[in-house]
Amino acid sequence: MAKLQVNLKVNGDEHDLLIEPRKTLLAVLRDTIGLTGTKEGCSTGDCGACTVIVDGKAVTSCMVLGVTASGKEITTIEGLASDGELHPVQQAFIDTGGYQCGFCTPGFIMASKVLLDEDPNRSEEEFRHALGGNICRCTGYTKILEAVLKAAEEVRTTA
Amino acid sequence: MKNFEFFEPTTLAEASRLFAQEHTLLLAGGTDIVIGMKALTETPQSVISLQKIPGLAGITTESDGSISVGAMAKVREVELSADIQQHHTALAEGAAEIGSIQIRNLATIGGNIAHASPAADTVAGLLVADAQVDIASADGERSVPIDELFTGPGQTVLAPGEIITRFRLPAPASGSHYIKHKIREVMDLAFIGVAASVSLDNGVITNARIGLAAVAPTPIRATEAENLLNGNELTPELLAQAGEAAAAGASPISDLRCSAEHRSEMVDVLTRRTVQTAVDRA
Amino acid sequence: MSEHTVVGRKVARVDAVEKVTGAAQYGADVHPPGMLYGKIVRSKHAHANIRGIDTSEAEKLPGVKAIITQDDVPSGRRVFATDKVLYLGEPLAAVAATDPDVAEEAAELIKIDYEVLPVVQDVMEAIKDSAPRLQGDDTKDGPNRREITTQIRRLSRDKENDHSDEISKLEAELENYPDEVYYNISAESHSDAGDVEKGFAECDVVVEDTYVIPRVHQTYMEPHVSVASADSSGKVTVWASTQGPFAIRSGIAGTLGIPLTQINVIGTTMGGGFGGRFGVIITHVPAVLLSQKTGRAVRVQMTREEEFTDGRPAPGCVIKLKTGATNDGRILARQALAFWDSGSVSGASIGSTIRVRGVYKIPNLKVDAYGVHTNKSGTAAYRAPGAPQAIFAGESQLDEIAKRIGMDPVKFRLMNMREEGDAVPAGASEPKVGYKETLEAVADAAGWWDREAGENQGWGVAVGDWTNGCGPGGVYVSVHEDGSARIFHGSMDITGTDTAISQIIAEILTVPYESVTIRRGDTDSAPYSTGSGGSVVTFTMGNTAKLAAEDAHQRILELASERLNMNVDNLELKDGAVHVISADPPKSISLGELAAYSLSTTGGPIVGKGAFARQPSTPALAAQIAKVEVDPETGRTRVLKLVASQDVGFAINPMAVEGQIEGGTVQGYAWAMMEEMQYGENGNINPGFVDYRVPTSADLPTVESVIVEVPAPNGPYGAKGVGEPPITPTLATMANAVNDAIGVRITELPIKPEKVVDALKSNGH
User: Fold this and answer.
1) Which of C54, C126, C160, C192 is the most exposed place for a label (fewest CB within 10 A)?
2) What's the pLDDT at C1?
3) Chains A and C: how many Cβ contacts under 8 Å?
């Protein structure tokens, strides 16, 4: 089957690539471009470890065919810190102990980042619900929620 | 995943012609078919994306109060649409029950319906909204009521080449509600789902509609229960009768999630709850 | 408050930045040049004879570089099934190809000729005569038959007297227990203390129940993966996502007959383990074989589905438990008969059945446990292996007794708890423990004593005990000319242990935590270090690090003594410098200066060495209280409050310790309420996150953790292992809370809505 030409804008960089239609966005990011910060935990969209931001929306990149992402703006965990400065949500995960093994962390951080962009005034309950697409097996979520609420506070006060 | 040819037509006619071929799949949001292809339960020779066809997305409210939901509208847009939340609450609530935000940002309402899972979370809401399903093909257009769309698990009346373009929701009943029976708060599939909508005329129920998901080979209406409710004021006794009638009309299966008996019991419980809330909201 | 400056404080972890920026390198992130992708070919049947494996079609597929079966295992050790498969997903062959999708396609093209055999999945069916015999025909006697046959054997041995009458009477008695001939038994374990029959006779209340605990998966978020690269000299390098690189090294050496030092295992950042990441065959050995055959690096990565069908999850079991107590609340006797589902491999956690004794003074205790073969994959450790299952039974039944005798469940437990010096049933005597303190702490924190419950709300309490293990470890610490310190060791970081080790080194060298860095070596370079499981790491490596730091400390004082021309007794290391005690004016020399000076001394640089192997720890208790609300119509349960206390000995990094308590508690909650590997006619039927439900943040409230510190005499600063205890009581905590809320006792986990509704119905609702 023919490979197709795609243009992916990832973290501000343009990548002109030739890919098979069956390659998911996750596979293209990890295997073709070499951005391995985005993780594959289940391959079925059920764990959220592969969450990236496409045109401002959080999506599970294991469910997206790479060919359909052509021309879209993609942000991965590698593109979140700017000029060596961590995003408030990254810093909050460090400060509160919001990660343990760290495998789900990039997905959690990307999902949280969009939630904070949309509305940092959500209640803990609303954040708990909105982050339901990301599974963490280590923390029991308590310190993740602490991190997200702390980052929300930070975003509110600096906005 | 097996390899396939990928097409991104820019017109419906072209998409329909491609889709009329054998061994083809339509790609809307991809959340079902990409997973199906990975599991090798789907092995299409070609995949036809609808993403480049203009006019299939968007949610618009017409002057007569009816709402038009494009088949390519994201489930997340349906969930967050102020008009749908207000006038077709059950549909917005059903949309919010699908997967995660990340999935709802990809999944489309057209895909959720065309996949024809009896457990689809938007289907009960569409049933009680009395939705009309607009269908297009290279040969023309037609429209079927949502009640008549499904013929079995994964089966619809759609002929080869036919593509759902739009759901039209007529001017609404005044109160509706959807409840899904599940274990996890989010990210669960419906053990069963029940939607109810009613209008009230001086306290008397009119236009009661009850939609049931995951209790039969296709999504169904609980017409017996609807008939009991219509023309009456809601009393605890009537509510109990409606619940029992809805349960009696269901023909669920037992599977790894729960038994048929439990499903029937939950139809009773959740019918009572959704009807009560729909009446409270009317 | 504390005499310490670095240990005992909340600090950000040493791996913080790499973990939040995506820079951390996990197994699947390793990509050597020219790497191939491996795929394991798995049985599509749960029990079958294999009549043939045809790889010819797959070999023709472009991009396929190698296909291997058991014939390609030079040592002959079993890596792939040959003539028979015992479970769905059992490996039969493996493929290496230039692309992961091509490898998958090739795997699908390999034709396996199966002769399907009858399947048995349920332990209670597997022990019956009617079950297919899975691995030979091992039969064992149950408790009564066992006792009678022991008597017969004893009498038969007495050649001096004639016991034939007694023997024939006993033989007749055997006939009373036809159900006690158990089939498909893989292992057994028995203990007996006191006299349970006599004990039960003295009880006012005796409760008997059967508890069924499902098989659950550790569900580490990173699926198993390894990358192997074999070079032409025979040297093998393996990047492995594992809890124990040294165990993987010896495992590969043993399985494939490769000399130990020809194998270098590089532990990659581990995406969770929980006991399930020690296996050698699972991906590491196939990756090595494929690399040897192709001469290229090969990555073998499991999918989530493969994790469920061919992972090594925690065993399910059936425990028949009987407990008796007096009306004034003394537990006098307990007896357990347990069947553990060990799948296709022998063992499971049968030895953990003894944990039904809990932390109570039970004078009479009898435990009989059996491992049973079924058509499932083998099992492995999962966070306090076997304890959650046994403790679920023990603590559920304790609540029932408290209810029958009308005693508060916390008071009932406190009154029966062991203290220092008390006899441990079927064990030694109790060292200094903090059982009562820990239970009291959770009761106080949760507001147990003035608890309120609305309609359909209830409170549950349970406790679980565990003692951390200890393993061998080696640590080096060097001090550099800028006054910083570097640690070198070989144990995998298991969510914060590198940080705890760094804190200990900083504490002893009196330098800021930030100026300590830690490096992990591979098995070629690092000193042997323990596997990271069994809550051993902080205990073992913490002690080892302490020895290394003290060794360095010694050298530092020697150097300062030389440099300052002062007796060592007059010197002390403080705030990163060696000071002359009571010097006026003050006189000191910094660590950096000493490190620079050391480079030109006869004794050389500051290098501290620590090596440590074994010291017993003391038991830790986890005590938990949950408040729940149950919807009696739908059977759904919502947790309103979840409080967890734990005796951690000493919390070196309280933030990490809280994280362990919270995470372990939620894993226990999940086992209680939703997780279960389900099996149908042909193996596992829920191999994914849709129907194997792991809780999300939306299912839970904040877990309130309470740290209790009763120091372990041999632990670093008194620390006990903290990882495992918190999962042990939660299963019972939840069942007890549901019982308190709506009066039904769920003995078969998980507590799914349907079971609650059905239990209420049989209670007459």
Assistant:
1) C160
2) 44
3) 177
- Tell whether B52 is within 8 A of chain A (Cβ): no
Q: Which helix (H) or strand (E) holds C762?
A: helix C753-762
Chain B residues in contact with A63 by the CB 8 A cut-off are 30-31, 34-35, 103, 106
Q: Do C222 and A103 touch (CB under 8 A)?
A: yes
CB within 8 Å: C754 and B1? no
Q: Tokens 């997905």 identify what position?
A: A107
Q: In terms of CA atoms, which chain C residue is nearest residue B269?
A: C633
Q: Determine, for residues A140 and C662 on separate chains, whether the beta-carbon distance falls below 8 Å.
A: yes
How many folded domains does chain B comprise? 3
ipTM, two decimals, is 0.97
Domain with residues A4-79, CATH architecture: Roll (3.10)
With 80 as the cut, is the pLDDT of residue A118 above it? yes
Q: What is the mean predicted confidence (pLDDT) over A27-50?
A: 98
Mean pLDDT on C511-534: 95
Cβ within 8 Å of residue C457, ≥6 positions away: C627, C628, C629, C630, C640, C741
Same domain, B85 and B162: yes
Residue C724 is a catalytic residue: yes
Question: What average pLDDT does this structure show over A28-37?
Answer: 97
Whether residues B32 and B89 share a domain: the answer is: no
Confidence of residue C38 (pLDDT cuts 50, 70, 90): very high
Say what the pLDDT of residue C2 is: 61
Whether the pLDDT of residue C532 is over 80: the answer is yes
What are the two backbone dihedrals, phi and then psi, of residue C504, each rounded to the nearest 5 degrees? -65, -45
Cβ-proximal residues to B175 (8 Å cutoff; 6+ apart), any chain: B89, B197, B198, B199, B200, B277, B278, B279, B280, B281, B282
Chain C residues close to A86, C-beta within 8 Å: 17, 20-21
Domain with B41, as residue range(s), is 5-49
Which CATH number does the domain housing residue B219 bear?
3.30.390.50
Partner residue opposite A46 with nearest CB, options C25, C664, C689: C689
Domain locations in chain A?
4-79, 88-158
Contact partners of B by the rule of 3+ C-beta pairs under 8 A?
A, C
Nearest CA in chain A to C656: A97
How high is the mean pLDDT of chain C? 96
Q: How far is B228 from chain A (nearest CA, A)?
A: 37
Find the CB nearest C496 among A41, A95, A100. A100
pLDDT of C137 strictly over 80? no
The domains found in chain C, sorted by start residue, are 31-117+224-301 (3.90.1170.50), 436-466+618-762 (3.30.365.10), 470-612 (3.30.365.10)
Is residue C465 within 8 Å of residue C355, measured between CB atoms?
yes
pLDDT score of C282: 87
pLDDT digits (tens, 9 = 90+) for C46-103: 999 999 999 999 999 999 999 999 999 999 999 999 999 999 999 999 999 999 999 9
Catalytic residue (one of C306, C307, C629, C724): C724
CB C430 within 8 A of CB C417: no
CA angle B108, B103, B107 (to 5 degrees): 10
Q: Best interface-test mutation with C: which of B38, B98, B101, B184 has the largest number of C CBs within 10 A?
A: B184
Question: Do residues C145 and C177 make contact, with C-beta atoms less than 8 angstroms apart?
Answer: yes
The distance between the two most distant Cα atoms of chain C, rounded to a whole number of Å, is 97
Q: Are the beta carbons of B6 and A65 separated by less than 8 Å?
A: yes
pLDDT of C295 strictly over 70:
yes
Chain A partners (3+ C-beta pairs within 8 A): B, C
What type of residue is C338?
A: A
Q: Do B106 and A64 touch (CB under 8 A)?
A: yes
Mean pLDDT of chain A: 97
- Helix residue spans in C91-132 (DSSP H): 100-109, 123-126
pLDDT exceeds cutoff 90 at C337: yes
CATH of A88-158, one of 1.50.10.10, 1.10.150.120, 1.10.3720.10, 3.90.180.10: 1.10.150.120
Contacting residues of A for C705, CB less than 8 Å apart = 142
Q: Name the domain boundary from B142, B169, B196.
A: B169
| 8 A C-beta contact, residue C668 and residue C657 | no
- Based on the fold, state whether residues B11 and B31 are members of the same structural domain: yes
